[in-house]
Amino acid sequence: MKRIYMDNNATTAVRPEVFDAMLPFYREQFGNPSSVHWAGRAVSGAVEKAREQVAKLINCSPAEIVFISCGSEGDNMSLKGTVDALRDKGDHIITTTVEHPAVLETCKALEKQGVRVTYLPVDHNGMLNLAELEAAITDKTILISVMWANNETGNLYPIEEIGAIARKYKVRFHTDAVQAVGKVPVDVQKANVDLLVISGHKLGAPKGVGAIYIRRGTRLTPFMHGGHQERNRRAGTHNVAGIVGLGVACELSGAHLDAEATRIRVLRDRLEQGILERVPEIKLNGHPDPNLRLPNTLNVSFAYIEGESLLLNFDMKGIAASSGSACTSGSLEPSHVMGAMCVDVVLAHSSTRFSLGTDNTEEDVDYVLEVLPPIVQRLREMSPLYNRAEPLSCEECQVIRKIH
Amino acid sequence: MYSDKVMDHFSNPRNVGEIENADGVGEVGNASCGDIMKIFLKVEDNVIKDIKFKTFGCGAAIATSSMVTEMAIGKTLDEALELTNAAVAEALDGLPAQKMHCSNLAADALHEAIKNYKDNHSA
């Protein structure tokens, strides 16, 4: 069976060049980079080379890069480390309602410790009102945390403008950039960010490695205490092979960024237009202007049907995508991002994300366009919400109203 | 995550559709938690002669709907009322823990349809 992977915002395959570069660091060059002997010396250079490769991609100094285990660690470290380090300055954080759980749940945990958090709402396109952000800043605000790009909708946030606001009020600015780095240009100088989080497995490096950019002079209490690794900013023996992989993945992404973004953008637009033309009664989730979304992401809801049953049907045809449905999240609530955008709850249950990657081709897109309409139609014909003869209940009416 | 039986009933659901002039109709569920099930009955001499369903919901919701219709057809109303959610889940070789509520819904929809039939025919 054909296998088409369109869930690259969830994770990506390790790129072959990355895999090859990592292999020697498991057997031949197994040393601990903190050791002074031959085995350690052989690998410490590799870690530093990777640091330069990561720094180059986001335009910072290698000394400002700290290697970590994943995006969630970076977000926890940024928020908790800032709260602890800036306790004397204030106790207020500003973030958004559409952040990844790594930020939202960390904020909730901090609230239990007395930190005040403002969660900025988004409009129905999922965008922020920057005047509201500016108005939320008080003399107790110690951190603004806004993601660079949203994982579900692909929406790109105006990071440079937010950075300028943060700079104006001298408030620290953290951005969870795990979905952006490697997909769109990310320049920490232009954006005026102080803390930026990268996850390896979103850009062709393996799972279990990431990096955080910490602007020079940013006081941050370590999240992981222990040895002197990473200049006392993050304890723990280096994941050498993973770090080497992350470096190579960053170099590859940087070298092909514009060309690859353009190529994937063409495929995503073809998929988006194709679905809009072939399937009636659907809703695009996220900003309608594709330029304001990641070039690889499309999120669409199909009225009258539920997301998990759609995904299972795709899966039977070899297509891997993801859903904002409650049934795929292990809770009874659909996606908080759809909720924040006031997407009707039934449409939120059918929100389906296609996130394309380097391996996708035009043929893949055409295959999806061929198999998707009959699947949607079959599920609709099974749905008690579709083509009802009798009057609809209030709850069901809501769905229909949102569509028309 | 799902058993082969669940996937079988999900990909080839039995008794999908509606019955015109059904003798009993039951609809349960809630759009906000993502499941709505509707069951239609044709009853003769207190026996379920025909049964159809329509479901908005996840894989488990569709599979349990399909299974409950298969289990109920040919049964007397009283026998059908004794069908439990646990029996439906068991007939499907089990459901993941977080999906057990789907089997509750399927049995509930059947029971609602029988209740509706009894209400219509009590006079």
β-strand percent of chain B reads 15-25%
Low-pLDDT runs of chain B = none
Strand order of the largest sheet of chain A: 2-8-7-6-5-3-4
Question: Stretches of chain A where pLDDT falls below 50 for ≥5 residues?
Answer: 397-404
Taking all Cα atoms into account, the compactness measure Rg of chain B is 13 Å
- Please work out how many helical segments of chain B DSSP would assign: 5
What's the number of extended β-strand segments of chain A? 13
Assigned CATH class of chain B: Alpha Beta
Overall pLDDT confidence of chain B: 92
From the N-terminal CA to the C-terminal CA of chain B, the straight-line distance is: 47 Å
Number of domains of chain B: 1
Coarse shape of chain B: globular
CATH architecture group name of the largest domain in chain A: 3-Layer(aba) Sandwich
Outline the secondary-structure elements:
The complex is a heterodimer of chains A (404) and B (123).
Chain A: E1 4-5, H1 16-22, H2 38-58, E2 65-68, H3 71-85, E3 92-96, H4 101-112, E4 116-120, H5 130-136, E5 141-145, H6 159-168, E6 172-176, H7 188-191, E7 195-199, E8 210-214, H8 240-278, E9 282-284, E10 297-302, H9 307-316, E11 319-320, E12 322-323, H10 336-340, H11 345-349, E13 351-355, H12 362-382, H13 394-403
Parallel strand pairs in A: 1-11, 3-4, 3-5, 5-6, 6-7
Antiparallel strand pairs in A: 2-8, 7-8, 9-10, 10-13, 12-13
Chain B: H1 4-11, E1 24-30, E2 35-44, E3 47-56, H2 59-72, H3 77-81, H4 85-91, H5 100-120
Antiparallel strand pairs in B: 1-2, 2-3
Helix pairs in contact in B: 1-2, 2-5, 4-5
